[in-house]
Q: What sequence folds into this?
C-alpha cells in the first residue's frame, strides 16, 4: 500500500508527500497529460519538470498499447524512456476513451499487465465509466464491475494502484464505490466527472465528491480526473483533492485560448500586454497572433502550463496560511457555475466537520457566502450549547477591545447585584463579551468592521451611552471592574473549551488571569502562581504541562485525550512528536489544531500536543506526525506569540 505522509493541512486540504519508485510527489499538484507519442506532445516532458516545476506527469497506457510502434518502444524502454521523463509517471487505462468512443479494445487484466510491464509508478484500474445520465441500475452495475476489477488488479500489482470511484449522480453508489476503492487502492480517483467539468456542472460535481469524501480512506491519495482549469484548483483542494490531471493546457492552446485563475480568454481579444511573466518577457501576448500556427499553439500551451503551475502553488500556500476558503471564494467569481458549486459544497458542511481546524490566524470576509463556511457552522453550535445553560436575556453593548479602559465602563452586575451577561454584535451574530477575542469572531476581517462609524462605535463615550441605555441608569465613574471581568473572561473561556464542570471547578480554587503589559489582552490563566493555560491570538486557552495535569483531574475518561502506545510513551514524554502509527485512540471531539492531552494506556500524562491529524485519521495514516509536542514535564510550554499592531 502507499507511503503517503501528511505534512500540513487546512481542513480536508492537505500538503503531503507520496513516495514512488521514481521520487516523491508533493501534493496537491497537477499531473500534466503527456501524449505517449513525442511527436504529438507540444512541450517536452523534461521541460515540464525543469522549467515549470511540475515533478510528475500522467500519460495514456491505452494509446501506447493500441499503437504497435509505441507499444514496442514502451516495452523495451519503459514508460519513462518512451516519453522522456525521469520523474514519477502515472498511467491511465482507457476509461476516458470508453467515455469518448463508447468502447475500448482491451480488457482490464490485459491493460494492467501492460502497465506493470512498462514500469509505471502509478497504474490505474480500467473502470466502467458511469455517465452522469445513467439510471441507478446502470450506475450500480458499473460500480460493482469496477470494484471487482479493482480487487483483481490489487492481486496482480505490487506497486501503487489508482482505483476509480464511480457512481454517477447517486450518493449511495458514490459512497459504496469510495468504500470499496479505499480497501484496495493507494490513489482514490474520483471518476465519471469529465462531462460535469466540461459542461461547468460544478454543483453536481460538488455533490458527487461530497458523497464519496467521508468514505475515502485518509491514507489514500485523492485524485480528481480531468480537473485542469486553474480556476477550479482551490475548489478541488477544499474537498481534499491531492492530484489533478488534465490536458487543458494544450487543448485550450489549440483553440487559441489562455487559461487564467479568473477564467478563460481568447488570444484574439488581448490588446494589452498585461502579463509580465518570464515567458511574456521574451514574447509578449500581443505578438503571439503573428506566429505560425504551430509556434503559436506551443507558446500558448507553455503559458497555460505556467499559469496552472503558479495557481497550484497559490493553493499550497493558502493551505499553509489557512486561507484556502478565502481563495476559493475569490476564484468562484470567475464563473456563476463555479459559485454555484462552492455554495453546493457549503450545503455539505458535515463533510468538513471532522477535519475543520480549531482555529486559523484570521477570518477574512470576501462576500456574504463567507459566513457559511464550516468554521462558522461549528462556532455557532458550540456557542448555542454554551448559552443554553445561561440565564435570561442579555443586554447589548457595542464591540470593544477587552482592555481595562473599556471594561471599566461596563458593569458586570446590575444595581441589585445580579450578574449581567453582556453581548456584543459581530458579523457572525451576537457573542458574549467574554468571547469576542476567540476564533472566528476575534480575528475576523469583515466589511462591517470597516464601515461608517467604526471608529466612533468603539469610542468610550458611545460605549458608556450603550450601557446607560441598557440599564436605564448612568454608570458610576469611580468603579474598577477589571479584576471581575478578568475572572469572568477566564471562567467563560474554560467553559467554552472544556465545559461547565471544568469552569466551576476552576472558579472555586482561586485561579486568576494575567493580562499582557503591552496589549492588556488576557494572555495566561494562573493558579497558585502556576501558569495553567496560555492564550494565543486565536483567544483559545492552551494548557501548559501543569494545566494538562489539572485537566486530567477535572475531565475523566477519554475527554481531551490521545492515547499513546506503550512503546512510544517514553519518547513522547521527552518531547518528541507523536507519530500516527503509535496512536491507540483519540477523543473524537478533538480537531486538527487542538491542544490535546497525550496519555499512556494507564491514563498517565505524558505531554501536551498540538494535533495535525483528526482523530479518525490517527493510526490509519501509517506515516507522519499526529501531534507535535508543545509541553512536557521538563519543558512546560512553548511561548505564546504576542499579536502585532496590525492584529489588534
A:
Amino acid at each position: 500500500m502507499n507511503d503517503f505522509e501528511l505534512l500540513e493541512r487546512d481542513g480536508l486540504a492537505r500538503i503531503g508527500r507520496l513516495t514512488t519508485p521514481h521520487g516523491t510527489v508533493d501534493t496537491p499538484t497537477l499531473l500534466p497529460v503527456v501524449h505517449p507519442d513525442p511527436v504529438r506532445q507540444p512541450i517536452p516532458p523534461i521541460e515540464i519538470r525543469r522549467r515549470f516545476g511540475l515533478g510528475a506527469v500522467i500519460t495514456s497506457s491505452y494509446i501506447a498499447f493500441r499503437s504497435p510502434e509505441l507499444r514496442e518502444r514502451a516495452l523495451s524502454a519503459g514508460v519513462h524512456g518512451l516519453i522522456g521523463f525521469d520523474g514519477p509517471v502515472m498511467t491511465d487505462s482507457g476509461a476516458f476513451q470508453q467515455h469518448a468512443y463508447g468502447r475500448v479494445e482491451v480488457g482490464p487484466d490485459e491493460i494492467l499487465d501492460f502497465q506493470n510491464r512498462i514500469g509505471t509508478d502509478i497504474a490505474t484500474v480500467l473502470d466502467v465509466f458511469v455517465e452522469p445520465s445513467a439510471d441507478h441500475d446502470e450506475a450500480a452495475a458499473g460500480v460493482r464491475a469496477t470494484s471487482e476489477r479493482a480487487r483483481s488488479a490489487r492481486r496482480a500489482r505490487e506497486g501503487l494502484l489508482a482505483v476509480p470511484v464511480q457512481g454517477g449522480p447517486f450518493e449511495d453508489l458514490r459512497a459504496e464505490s469510495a468504500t470499496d476503492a479505499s480497501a484496495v487502492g493507494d490513489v482514490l480517483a474520483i471518476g465519471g466527472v469529465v462531462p460535469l467539468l466540461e459542461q461547468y456542472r460544478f454543483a453536481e460535481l460538488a455533490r458527487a465528491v461530497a458523497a464519496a469524501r467521508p468514505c475515502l480512506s485518509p491514507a489514500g491519495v485523492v485524485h480528481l480526473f480531468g480537473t485542469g482549469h486553474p480556476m477550479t484548483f482551490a475548489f478541488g483542494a477544499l474537498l481534499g483533492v491531492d492530484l489533478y490531471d488534465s490536458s487543458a493546457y494544450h487543448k485550450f492552446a489549440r483553440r487559441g485560448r489562455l487559461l487564467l485563475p479568473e477564467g478563460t480568454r481568447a488570444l484574439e481579444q488581448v490588446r494589452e500586454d498585461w502579463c509580465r511573466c518570464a515567458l511574456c518577457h521574451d514574447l509578449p501576448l500581443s505578438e503571439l497572433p503573428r506566429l505560425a500556427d504551430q509556434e503559436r499553439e506551443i507558446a500558448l500551451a507553455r503559458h497555460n502550463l505556467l499559469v496552472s503551475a503558479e495557481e497550484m502553488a497559490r493553493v499550497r500556500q493558502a493551505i499553509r496560511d489557512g486561507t484556502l476558503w478565502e481563495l476559493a471564494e475569490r476564484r468562484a467569481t470567475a464563473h456563476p457555475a463555479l459559485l454555484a458549486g462552492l455554495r453546493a459544497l457549503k450545503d455539505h458542511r458535515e463533510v468538513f466537520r471532522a477535519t475543520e481546524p480549531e482555529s486559523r490566524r484570521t477570518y477574512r470576509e470576501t462576500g456574504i457566502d463567507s459566513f457559511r463556511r464550516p468554521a462558522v457552522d461549528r462556532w455557532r453550535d458550540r456557542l448555542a450549547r454554551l448559552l443554553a445553560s445561561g440565564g435570561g436575556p442579555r443586554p447589548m453593548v457595542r464591540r470593544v477591545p477587552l482592555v481595562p479602559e473599556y471594561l471599566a465602563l461596563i458593569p458586570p452586575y446590575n444595581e441589585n447585584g445580579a450578574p449581567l451577561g453582556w453581548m456584543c454584535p459581530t458579523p457572525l451574530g451576537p457573542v458574549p463579551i467574554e468571547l469576542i477575542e476567540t476564533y472566528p469572531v476575534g480575528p475576523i476581517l469583515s466589511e462591517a468592521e470597516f464601515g461608517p462609524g467604526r471608529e466612533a462605535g468603539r469610542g468610550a463615550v458611545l460605549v458608556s451611552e450603550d450601557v446607560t441605555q441598557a440599564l436605564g441608569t448612568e454608570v458610576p465613574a469611580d468603579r474598577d471592574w477589571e479584576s471581575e471581568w478578568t475572572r469572568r473572561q477566564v471562567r467563560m473561556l474554560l467553559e467554552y473549551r472544556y465545559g461547565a464542570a471544568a469552569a466551576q471547578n476552576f472558579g472555586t480554587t482561586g485561579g486568576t488571569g494575567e493580562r499582557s503589559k503591552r496589549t492588556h489582552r488576557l494572555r495566561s490563566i494562573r493558579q497558585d502562581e502556576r501558569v495553567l493555560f496560555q492564550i494565543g491570538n486565536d483567544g483559545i486557552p492552551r494548557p501548559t504541562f501543569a494545566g494538562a495535569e489539572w485537566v486530567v483531574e477535572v475531565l475523566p475518561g477519554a475527554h481531551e485525550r490521545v492515547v499513546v502506545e506503550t512503546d512510544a510513551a517514553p519518547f513522547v514524554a521527552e518531547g518528541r512528536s507523536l507519530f500516527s502509527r503509535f496512536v491507540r485512540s483519540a477523543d473524537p471531539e478533538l480537531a486538527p489544531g487542538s491542544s490535546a492531552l497525550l496519555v499512556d494506556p494507564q491514563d498517565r500524562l505524558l505531554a501536551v500536543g498540538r494535533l495535525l491529524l483528526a482523530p479518525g485519521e490517527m493510526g490509519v495514516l501509517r506515516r507522519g506526525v499526529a501531534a507535535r509536542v508543545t509541553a512536557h514535564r521538563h519543558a512546560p510550554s512553548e511561548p505564546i506569540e504576542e499579536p502585532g499592531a496590525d492584529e489588534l
About this structure: The chain has three domains: 4-246, 370-468, 487-645.
